[in-house]
Amino acid sequence: MSENSTEMRATESAEQSRWSMVGKDPWTMPIEKIDLSHPGIWHTNEFLPFLERLRKEDPVHFCAESAVGPYWSVTKYSDIMEVDTSPHIYSSEPTVGIIDSYEEYTLPMFIAMDPPKHDDQRRIAQPVVAPANLKRLESIIRERVCNILDGLPVNEEFDWVKHVSIELTTQMLATLFDFPFEDRYKLTFWSDAATAIPGAGVVNSNEERWAAMEECLQVFTGLWNERVNAEPGSDLVSMLAHGEATRNMAPMEYLGNIILLIVGGNDTTRNSISGGVLALNENPAEYDKLRANHGIIPNMVSEIIRWQTPLAYMRRTALVDAELGGKQIKAGDKVVMWYAS
Asked: Which one of 165, 214, 276, 326 has the fewest CB atoms closer than 10 angstroms to its CB?
């Protein structure tokens, strides 16, 4: 069976699940039955009306039954900010994913840690995307963009995601990690394997996913050993190897942070590039504005990130009983911040 057929089968299965919201009217169904966690409405681009109803009628919404168990949905900006800035109440540990992962398949990484360890480790990697470093990389980014666009076929159909979004993102990831350029597509595969639903076309099982993660660890351990014995460099592996908060990481924590950085650079950026181009073509008046005034490109970049939210949600777990938006959250409850809202 082809990859496309497998993905289609997985999507159809998701849409036909008893938990699916696909084809349902969010305005007439009982509000307590709304379940944003099921992937069907995201595959079919039907999620916005569900978010709109929750924002208007129940911005801190409890879903008692779902395939991922009971959880709270937070859909308004002020409530999301309250959760996001209160790590003493809402913890990122043990996971920021809506699914409770198996312990044997859970990797420690700083995005799923609370302060101060989160802040200390994040601070090590942050300079790679600081304005000064991005300015240093500007010429090579522009050169690669031009080369990729100039190499596209003319007057024939092609896959923008594959030939532009993935290609550009993968090239830049290899640069940020100082990863062997000829092996750069391994970064894309490891990112996809880490985030894909088993059976959806990338990996068929958690065991297969874990085999990919072990390969990733082996390769990056070799790079660590090279960089730790050299002078500190400006690439991410060197930063981690020499950083005070990261140089003594256990292998699984190192792997977790590598996967986090790969996914953070790959999945989000390529989705923004693809979604941005799609949005411009679906809104030709906005595209015309851009063509007429290149000075608004910086605004366009910010707007694309807002419009095509690279990250739909993030989960927290309540450490204590708390009140949010007039609702009583219990310690241990799963609280999901829907950034896409």
From this structure: 326
